[in-house]
Write a structure and sequence with these properties.
Elements: E1 6-17, E2 28-44, E3 48-53, E4 58-63, H1 77-87, E5 95-102, H2 112-127, H3 134-147, H4 156-163, E6 166-170, E7 176-179, E8 187-191, H5 198-219, H6 230-233, H7 242-266, H8 272-288, H9 295-306, E9 311-314, E10 322-326, H10 331-340, E11 344-348, E12 355-357
Parallel strand pairs: 3-5
Antiparallel strand pairs: 1-2, 1-12, 2-5, 2-6, 3-4, 6-7, 8-10, 8-11, 9-10
């Protein structure tokens, strides 16, 4: 890397516990992983930001002005992130040529778009001399991707990529993140190679859960998704619309699994086998009641367990994309089984958060 080059790397993420929970303001547990979006940038005399998206064979150009720039298409995340800084009063006089590429599979549930945004905001914070903290970069990422375009997602992806590590994230406003003590190894990603429509899928499941909350409150007015014990409302599910009842039931059970997992992952007596049991229980709810899995992902989960994984589950919003297996003893054997079943396997580790690599 030349002395004039700026290099930024931002990790993708897996969600261990809490799929379809962060946008409901329920806690989640996520980990940054060693698959990355990388930006390299050099100065140019032209008053513009030129971004070569190498994996998409596209180029974007942002003219440097004192005003917000117009969006050219839906979810124009590069420009929306730039506009966050303009609104805060920052101005940029120096142009850059940026090359953006990554090792995170696109549209696979590993947060490639959020990692791109976090890398881009980290770069902009550096060149704007904004000196944003990792927490602020996570907030900016959420504003640029979700708030700006009124999407259904939460902040899990942005905070995990910005802060890194294994995190328990309290998604109530204001967000609070706690680093968990457990040292996880043997994480094997299995990409089903089934691509997904994340935004539409999130919105559809969110709507069904909200209908379920509305229905149950007619029978149980004090119902609180964050606190009400499962046994207090279990007898009410048969009186609800079947499909939305299953979605709500899954969210309550998964809320409880996340609480158990937080205790386990914070314990000095951490048990890998106990983590596997919780991951398997979580996948059962995601597949059977939340119904976000697919036959191929269920197959990859099954072969991973048979090959020695202690636990395995779908990852992310579902309806395609990736699963992951927890196989601290035999990750290579599990990866081979996933490949033989038609998936693409990646053995990964828990990663640091987004950072600028010194020249």
């Amino acid at each position: 890397m030349s002395k004039e080059e700026i290099r930024v790397v931002a990790p993708g993420r897996i969600c261990l516990f809490g799929e379809h929970q962060d946008y409901l303001r329920l806690p989640v547990i996520a980990a940054a992983i060693s698959l990355y979006i990388e930006i390299t940038a050099v100065k140019t005399t032209a008053p513009k930001l030129i971004i070569d998206l190498l994996d998409l064979n596209k180029q974007e150009t942002i003219e440097l002005t004192n005003r917000e720039v117009s969006y050219l298409y839906d979810r124009d995340y590069l420009r929306s992130a730039y506009n966050q800084f303009i609104r805060m009063g920052y101005r940029l006089r120096q142009g850059y040529i940026c090359k953006l590429h990554g090792t995170i599979p696109i549209n696979a549930g590993l947060s490639s778009s959020s990692a791109m945004i976090i890398a881009w905001i980290t770069f902009l914070s550096y060149v704007f001399k904004a000196n944003l903290s990792p927490y602020q970069i996570g907030e900016f990422g959420y504003q640029a991707e979700v708030d700006e375009f009124r999407e259904a997602g939460g902040m899990m992806d942005h905070f995990t990529s910005a802060l890194g590590g294994l995190l328990y994230i309290n998604t109530k406003m204001l967000y609070d993140c706690k680093i968990l003590d457990a040292k996880l190894k043997g994480i094997v990603i299995g990409d089903s190679l089934e691509r997904k429509n994340t935004i539409a899928d999130l919105a559809r499941v969110k709507e069904q859960v909200q209908i379920g909350i509305s229905q149950i409150r007619k029978m149980f007015p004090t119902f609180d998704l964050k606190k009400t014990p499962y046994q207090d409302v279990e007898q009410l599910f048969p009186s609800m619309t079947s499909n939305v009842a299953k979605k709500l039931q899954a969210n309550i059970i998964n809320r409880n699994l996340t609480k158990q997992a937080r205790t386990l992952l914070s314990s000095p007596n951490f048990s890998p086998n106990a983590l596997g049991v919780l991951l398997n229980a979580h996948h059962e709810q995601l597949a059977r009641n939340l119904e976000i899995s697919t036959p191929k992902i269920d197959k990859l989960v099954d072969v991973a367990r048979k090959a020695g994984a202690l636990g395995a589950k779908i990852n992310g919003s579902g309806f395609g994309g990736c699963m992951f297996a927890y196989a601290p003893d035999e990750p290579e054997k599990v990866a081979k089984a996933i490949e033989e079943a038609g998936g693409k396997a990646y053995i990964v580790s828990v990663s640091e958060g987004c950072k600028i690599i010194p020249s």
